[in-house]
Amino acid sequence: MSSTTHAIHYEKKHLPASAGTLGWGVLIAGLAVAGASFAMDPMRAKYSSIMLFMFLAGVGICSLFMVSIEYLAGAVWSTPLRRVFEILASSLLFLPLFALPILPFMQELYLWTHKTDDILARKAAYLNQPFFLIRLALILGIWILFYKLFTGRSYKQDETRDQDLTRKNVKLSAVFIPVFGISITALSIDFLMSLEPHWFSTMFGVNFFAGSLVAALGVITITVILLNENGYLVKGIIGDHYYSLGFGMFAGCVFWTYTAFSQGMLIWYANLPEETPWFLNRWEGSWKVITIALLLVHFIGPLFGLIQRKNKRNPSRMIFMAAWVIFAHVLDLYWIVVPVFQPEGPSLRLTEFGFIAIAIGFLIVLVTQQAKKKNLVAVGDPKLQRGLAFRL
Amino acid sequence: MQVANRPSSDALNSDGTIKDFAVEPSVVLKSPSLHDLTEVISRPIEAKATLKWYIALAVSASLLMLEMVCWGISFYYGSGMWGNNIPVAWAFPIVNFVFWIGIGHAGTLISAILFLFRQKWRNGIARFAEGMTIFAVMCAGLFPLFHTGRPWLPLYLMPYPNKHAVWVNFLSPLVWDVFAVSTYFTVSLFFWYTGLIPDFATLRDRTLGKDLISKIKKSVYSVLSLGWRFSNRHWRHYERVYLILAGLSTPLVLSVHTIVSFDFAVSGLPGWHTTIFPPYFVAGAIFSGFAMVVTVLVFIRYIFDMQHLITVETLEKMNKIILLTGTIVGYAYGMEFFIAWYSGNLIEQFTFINRAFGPYAWAYWIMISCNVISPQMFWFRKLRRSVPIMFVISIFVNIGMWFERYVITVTSLARDFLPSSWGWYNPTLVDFGLLLGSFGMFFTLTLLFVKFMPVVSIAEIKSVMDEAKPSHHGGDH
Who among A204, A254, A382 is closest to B21 (CB)? Predict the structure, then answer.
């Protein structure tokens, strides 16, 4: 059980205070706008809370998914970056806070809470408020538990360099994957699909997973590149590592399109009255523009932007494409949530930007706060040296 | 780079657990020299065929004859010789078609997708899996051809202007199938052949005999190797082409079974129409394809003494993928059942309850126990690494995946919306003959392949040896 033979030159540096200040500033401004919106334009603020919660839930859990998949597949390219995944996954700890603004308004947001008919009566065993809350508590609780277990061992390894910690996390990952699959599906059905409780699609959970993975990789990419280009990570993280993140975003976008197309095409083709309304609502008025834009932004853009190797190795182009795919996922969430409340067509107010500011500010604060306490590289990981030697 | 140069035995313990994460485990064991590798892989081709090979060929060729007889019957008397009848108008032929197309997915997944993911362990098994893909697609293709009822008019499946004004119905996913499967077959064949070119050149150079047979062999290998001379320029072009073909094949792996799933899912029939079908079918196809590769590789590595090339570690990784895809298939079964209930649609609910507890419940539970329960054994490392156990489970998986298609096709058709039109499906002897015979065709082609072509890629396996690592220096070659 020998440890790595030569030292890795990681020197813990503190992020500039201005980064933290910026994060807090954006976060507070966003909170102020959102707070005012709850008073002035309450419905918009309420459904925006759903989007914010589902965005952060997706980014958090898919970051943890990236951690687990590294252990499970024995990947090495991502080892030097894994600490960033772990830091972003710590947003899971704050998810209960982001779920709170939704819960008091469930009566207004979810039709099934107060109306019933023949069909809704048949699903009442699943769609009822107590069970909804139990599921939410269970899902968030399990996610936080897995987060604690994974990262607890990873941080401990910084000190002890004990390979048994990696071994334990490999086993934990195998348990995590099926739990992850079921829980992310349940969360997407509960918060998004049940907004239109008569509609159903077996693909919905897979589609939400694909979109969230893309967004998580986008956030990871921006964070990694900003930290690494400014010298906060370890020497040796190069274009080949960026390439792999870009590869993931590309594959994720194509997979998302695959699931979205399969869902849309099959429903269009079979043309059954119980399935088509969901798409018809999004094909009416100016929503049609958003539907087409979603295809262009979530598929065509990343397809051409990320297919070239030189783009995936270039830091500034990667940041641009990462921001692009994050926007694509936000647009996807918007397209799922907002037509329920604004069937006449999309409209933007300051409220939406306030919620976007909360997400951005929150993620910056999260990274800067975590960076104060923790190493930004998993220095004790036995695969770190191999990860830095990774070449295409 | 001292780390990478440490002996690879440092990476793993003998029970397959990881000893040191800092060392990259090697794909090939016993560190043979590059020449040894060429020798081991070429031996089955150059040595005389063994009695065992002849016996195996006799058995599978007999089954192939059975298939030919059954196709002859189907051709002469028509598809009325099958058990297909209203309401179950789709039965064994479609089930067999989907089954074989599914088997044909592992090859391209291993050679293309795992290549793009830089999984080095694929290099030992890619060639064989690709070959298997091509044979499986050939087995599959015959079924829809005969199912058209007029197998002598396949050209009408192509949209070309003709004076009969026969035009294909582009709205039918069955037509999409024609394009998807033929494209997949063509690209897989090219991909396979491209990989074979350097190996054909190796075989050409090794064929030195002066007798007539050797001369014929040498000229055949020369033609097939397209003048390959192992020059640097050849390799550079080759690697470029290989990468591009891998990129092109990747969407094809997904598209073929996606479109096969559309055959069912575009309809309004309960049990066929559900949006998760495309990825669920693709996962199922990879699942069954990997199982078939494991089934056959277990023998090949033993018969040809290739345990150090196709290692237990490689098989273990394949078993992990079987566990993963089996669990994805289980997720899809669960999701279908849940959404059937959640939809509140009574007909949809009836279909699924009928599947699990109706007259075809036996088929449903065979499917569940083989596809979802049996791969769960692979959670345990000991079972994952035990050759007899993986052999048995891989057979179970193939049985289960055949029954999955049977359950989907037959149960939904046998009992649809109107109880007055319900029926029952009875396969005929010809149906069974075709099913059994298609295995004969598959194994005959496989046996011929392992006799005349290198079953492991000589060039690719060398690229995962220590000598190929940029950190390798010194040594005696």
Answer: A382
B266 to A266: CB separation less than 8 angstroms, yes or no = yes
Contacts with A5 from chain B: Cβ below 8 Å: 2-3
Mean pLDDT of chain A: 94
pLDDT of res. B468:
76
Return the higher-pLDDT residue of B346 and B30. Answer: B346
Residue B476 has pLDDT above 80, yes or no: no
- State the nearest Cα–Cα gap between A165 and chain B, in angstroms: 11
In a domain, A11, yes or no: no
Structural domain boundaries enclosing A231: 17-388
Proportion of chain B above pLDDT 90, given as a percent: 67
> How many domains does chain A divide into?
1
- Look at B470 and A391 and tell me if their CB atoms are within 8 Å: yes
Tell me if A263 and B1 make a contact (CB, 8 A cut-off). no
Helices (H), A233-349: 239-270, 276-281, 287-295, 301-306, 309-313, 315-341
Tell me the per-residue pLDDT of A20-36, one tens digit each, with 9 for 90 and over: 999 999 999 999 999 99
| pLDDT top residue among A9 and B392 | B392
Q: How confident is the model at residue B474 (pLDDT cuts 50, 70, 90)?
A: low
B13 has a chain A CB within 8 A of its CB: no
The total domain count for chain B is 1
A169 contacts A154 by C-beta, under 8 angstroms:
yes
A8 falls within a domain? no
B394-399 long-range Cβ contacts below 8 angstroms, 24+ apart? B394/B290, B394/B291, B394/B292, B394/B294, B394/B295, B394/B298, B394/B322, B395/B291, B395/B295, B396/B370, B397/B287, B397/B288, B397/B291, B397/B322, B397/B326, B397/B370, B397/B371, B398/B103, B398/B288, B398/B291, B398/B292, B398/B295, B399/B366, B399/B370
Picking from A61-70, B90-99, B123-132, which range would have the lowest pLDDT averaged per residue? B123-132
Give the distance from residue B268's alpha carbon to the nearest chain A alpha carbon, in angstroms: 5
Burial bucket for residue B79 (CB in 10 Å: 0-12, 13-18, 19+): middle
Q: Which residues of B touch A259 (CB under 8 A)?
A: 278-279
Binned at pLDDT 50, 70 and 90, residue B8 comes out as low
Nearest CA-CA partner of B244 in A307, A264, A262, A379: A307
In a domain, A251, yes or no: yes
Which residues of A are less than 8 Å from B262 in CB distance?
Answer: 266
B343 shares contact with chain A (CB less than 8 Å): yes
Per-residue pLDDT, A6: 52
The domain of B133 spans 33-152+182-468
How confident is the model at residue A254, as a pLDDT?
Answer: 95
Is there a domain that residue B170 lies in? Answer: no
- Mean pLDDT value across residues B190-215: 92
Question: Best mutation site among A202, A253, A268, A392 for testing chain B: the one with the most B CBs within 10 Å?
Answer: A202
Does A340 touch chain B if contact means CB atoms closer than 8 Å? Answer: no
Which 177-196 residues of chain A touch chain B by CB within 8 A? 177-178, 181-182, 185, 189
Task: Tell me whether residue A238 is in a domain.
Answer: yes
Indicate the average pLDDT of chain B. 90
Residues from chain A that touch B260, judged by Cβ atoms under 8 A, are none
pLDDT for res B477: 43
A8: confidence class by pLDDT, cuts 50, 70, 90: confident
pTM over 0.90: yes
| A residues 82-141 closer than 8 Å to B (CB) | 118-120, 122-123, 126
Torsion angle of C-alpha atoms B376, B378, B380, B383, degrees rounded to 10: 120
- Cβ-Cβ contacts under 8 Å, B239 against chain A: none
- B28/chain A closest Cα distance in angstroms: 18
Tokens of B274: 């559900």
A179 has a pLDDT exceeding 50:
yes
